[in-house]
Amino acid sequence: MPSRFILPTLALAVFFVGATEFMLSAMLSPLAVAFETTPAHAAWLVSSYALSYAVAAPIFGYLSDRIDRRRLLLVSLVLFSIDGLALTIAPSFGAAIVLRVFGGLASAALIPTVFALVADIIPAHRQSAAMGAVMIGMTSGIVSGPVIAGVLTEALDWRAPFLVTAAGCLTTVAIARSAIPARAGNPPVPKMRRPVWLGRGNLIRPLAAKGLWNGTAVAGFLLAGEVLRLRYDLGVAATGVSISAFGLGLLLGNLGVGRAARLFRGDDRTLIVALFLLSAAVGGFMLTPLSFTGDLVFLTAWGFALGLAAPTSTAILASLAGEEKGQVLSLSESLNNLMILAVLPLAAMQLDATGATGAALVLAVFLAIGVFLAIADLATRKPTAP
């Protein structure tokens, strides 16, 4: 299969991860009913996934710099599929939590490996656009995941979306075996050595910043469906369709990464502009429910800003990491998920106790710290070239 199919194949791989993770934003209430718990407790199905991802990602990232990335990608897709199938027969909420931990392990191997492969294959000056192209796959999963989950859950039951995504992962394995050459990336680093990047401040600052703003933005989105349901008394299918506005914004942001980098003359400036837009959109959605249409506009802007910021930040980190990009990108994903783990339960409890205003305050604190660190990082080093 021609090399031009590599990026679309990688995009398809992350599509099913995005669909599986983000479809839960439309399913918290049905899952709470299925496992005889509350929507706030059902949010731990997301948090347990995030915890295992956060713990395992640095390990898999270290290994991905030293073993065959293609093989690691294929194995993780198979494991992710097995997890989805097993979840449909989970006998209890506790068992479902354990299976979500297993799914987090599979994602911890898959996502950083995908972006490390992109960094291996694509020249540095085109990497932010390439990262955006692959993230279109995850974005498409985020757009369609809640819709698929809402429609299938309402038409059949909560198990149907997991069965569909599991089958999709297995299909992707067959495609990837042909589309991705055995030596698609740079040769792995054979020597097991101490991670030298740990002492480099120019990596620690952007890593911490991205973990804060990205993890907080995703945690907020995972509650957005419940916020809309409470405000407008929506059904599961209507909730899923409504929050796909966020995914539409993500898609537009991913598509606009290259143009934005040219407009703002570099990745660093693009990132800062995107983060200010992200802060405004999150605050607008959570605090100013003027109308249903207005909420959808804020959700779209929220997704657009994140769609610009995430691939731009990933390209910056890959450029700074050099040969150890697998470790650095995996730690970035780990920090993102640690923030989801920290922020989502707190925001969910505040949503139950005081409504969207309380949840907004939790999101605002962590988001503000992340944006401040990103600005401080830009001020301490030379901006990236246009």
From TrEMBL:
Q: What is this protein called?
A: MFS transporter
Where does the record place it?
Cell membrane
Q: Which Pfam families match?
A: MFS_1
The transmembrane segments are 44-63, 72-91, 97-118, 130-152, 158-182, 203-224, 236-258, 270-290, 296-322, 334-351, 357-379
Domain spans labelled Major facilitator superfamily (MFS) profile:
6-382
> Which keywords belong to this entry?
Cell membrane, Membrane, Plasmid, Transmembrane, Transmembrane helix
State the organism named in the record: Ensifer adhaerens
Location, primary (coarse class):
membrane
Q: Quote the PANTHER family the UniProt record gives.
A: CHLORAMPHENICOL EFFLUX PUMP RV0191 (PTHR43124:SF3), PURINE EFFLUX PUMP PBUE (PTHR43124)
Tree of life domain:
Bacteria
Spell out the InterPro entries in the cross-references.
MFS, MFS_dom, MFS_Efflux_Transporters, MFS_trans_sf, Tet-R_TetA/multi-R_MdtG-like
Q: How does it sit in the membrane?
A: Multi-pass membrane protein
